[in-house]
Amino acid sequence: MIISTKIQKKNEKPPPEKLFDPSSDSPFLSFAPQILFWWGGKKQFAFFFFFFPLSNAPLVRMDSTYASSSYPDLSSPAMPTAGGVSRPVKIIPLQHPSVGAGSSSSSSNSPAAFFSGLATKWKRLTFLQFIDGLFPCYRWIRTYRWRDDFQVDLIAGLTIGIMLVPQAMSYAKLAGLEPIYGLYTGFVPIFVYAIFGSSRQLAIGPVALVSLLVSNVLRGIAGPSDELYTELAIVLALMVGILECILGLLRLGWLLRFISHSVISGFTTASAVVIGLSQAKYFLGYNITQSSKIVPLIQSIIAGADQFAWPPFVMGSGILAVLLVMKHLESVGIAKALAAKNGYELDSSQELVGLGLANIFGSFFSSYPSTGSFSRSAVSNESGAKTGLSGIITGIVMGCALLFLTPLFEFIPQCALAAIVVSAVIGLVEYEEAIFLWRIDKKDFLLWIITCTTTLFLGIEIGVLIGVGVSLAFVIHESANPHIAVLGRLPGTTVYRNVQQYPEAYTYHGIVVVRIDAPIYFANTSYIKDRLRDYEVNVDNSIRRGPEVERIYFVILEMSPVTYIDSSAVQALKDLHQEYRSRDIQIAITNPNREVLLTLSKAGVVELIGKEWYFVRVHDAVQVCLQQVQSLHQTSSPAAESKPNRFERLLKQRGEDLSVAELESGQRKASASRNGDPNLEPLLSHKFTP
């Protein structure tokens, strides 16, 4: 661009020192250093060749960056550019929350604030909302469509009732009880859950796993033939119900999240094998040892092989084959999946309360512990159940069976009941899950193997405890050894990513950028400090740019993934700062969240490190640190043989600034450096990918 300007006064020329003074406040003089000046002599014209803007003002930038008032020394002459002339570093200021403003947020997490908020919620409830919370059945009663819903609920209820009668008797035998107690367990609890439960398709009653647990717990106290055994099973239902209600009322259902899917899958697989072997006596025709361990069961089966009887084996196998063929026609689901499919929300805490009340009221009518059945719930859903009325119909079927059909049940063969149990637990053997875990996550596969093996050989209680313990150990190990990544700059951007994931990303000499991908607390502070020391000594293999220096001068901590820090982490940061300071290394922190920054401020870490070393972006921190590294490099390197004059240095600086502005704004692709010295362009990569 060529701009011609007529001179008003013939012999008046601006003094050179004012024309090229970058500190001038004049609007005209602010553009002086970016032009070439030529006088036209007698024609009284001057030609100005416009090159670059004076400063890093965002003429082509799309993001609004500016010099932060929090960092008054960043633009001081002590931070020279490659040409020796100081220029301000453009960064986004980090907003530091005041300690007083954060006290309210901290107090909101106190127990008093929690109960106060809970009381406020109760006061805001309307009468209908209160009834909905107390009796979830009211939600579907007030919107029930008799013409559309009653027929499908009736069919589903009858179907589940027909399934439940033989299953209830079979599971009672598995629990070491008389079959009649299985019918009791499938009667009253169903009505109670229909009133207080939130799932509309979940079918509760006796199930195989719970029955096995009841048998395994009570056999160590009394024999199945003793009256005490039956009484203990009923009391156990009361205790289970009370515990479930407490967990639900205190909304402690989140504790179950610590039992991983691998533990549950391994436990159910081993339990299914034990249950199946325990029913072998009804197929083989002779007694075997009652145990929850696989070795005594197999030894007992082998020892009594000479007593094998064909009739029960043939009848039981035939009934089992028929049941398996029929079972191959439904799918297995759980309450949350059923709720999502049918368009309503499931309250986990309300579920615990509903199941707890079902067990409590059931214990008053001679039932043993009950819960939701996977297979029956799936059949309920496939049968089209819309509301809890289907459960009430199932309860009516069970009542009719207790009143009128019990004399007929006396003649049901034991092998038929055993076939029902075996057909139910075959689906619990999740070998496909083990194959899936082997492909996806070897650690979860190991957890599955540990849980399954210990349950088979050491018993159900020990197996599940070991599985949960190992699962928690894995969680603690992951938390105590969090993922930490060294970040590099992606070519042509101001984005910084893991150099292991993006090999093309490059770092800068004298600077290491580290991202901590976890909360920092007492269990992982030592590991984090050790890793940071390693990064200081062991340089990664990524491409490195910038002035070549012999060691690390700046450690930048990217803390956006850090959601929480405790007092131990604060003390560790203080110790690390003192340790780095003794070796002339500066810490910089980028993008901490409000709570983390507030904790650091209260602990005095912000003032200890210095507010000027807290940044919004990693790139802002890198710019400041890189300018310092350049200054250190220039003071240690020999002086140039031919030092460029001030005018040439200004032109070179403007070229760098415009290139950076265009690069970060995305207005143009990055171009190659105009200068041969790679140390003179700290913010531009040597080679860019299109």
Automatic annotation (TrEMBL):
Transmembrane segments: 150-168, 180-196, 203-222, 228-250, 262-288, 308-326, 387-405, 411-429, 445-476
Subcellular location: Membrane
This protein's UniProt keywords: Membrane, Transmembrane, Transmembrane helix, Transport
Gene Ontology MF term list: secondary active sulfate transmembrane transporter activity
Bias type Basic and acidic residues, positions: 9-20
GO cellular component labels: membrane
InterPro entries recorded: S04_transporter_CS, SLC26A/SulP_dom, SLC26A/SulP_fam, STAS_dom, STAS_dom_sf
STAS domain boundaries: 501-625
Start and end residues of each stretch annotated as Disordered: 1-21, 662-690
CDD domains, A to Z: STAS_SulP_like_sulfate_transporter
Pfam family, one: STAS
Membrane topology summary: Multi-pass membrane protein
Main subcellular location: membrane
Lineage: superkingdom: Eukaryota
Keyword field contains Transcription: no
Family assignment from sequence similarity: Belongs to the SLC26A/SulP transporter (TC 2.A.53) family.
PANTHER family attached to this UniProt entry: SULFATE TRANSPORTER (PTHR11814)
Listed name of the protein: STAS domain-containing protein
Origin species: Linum tenue
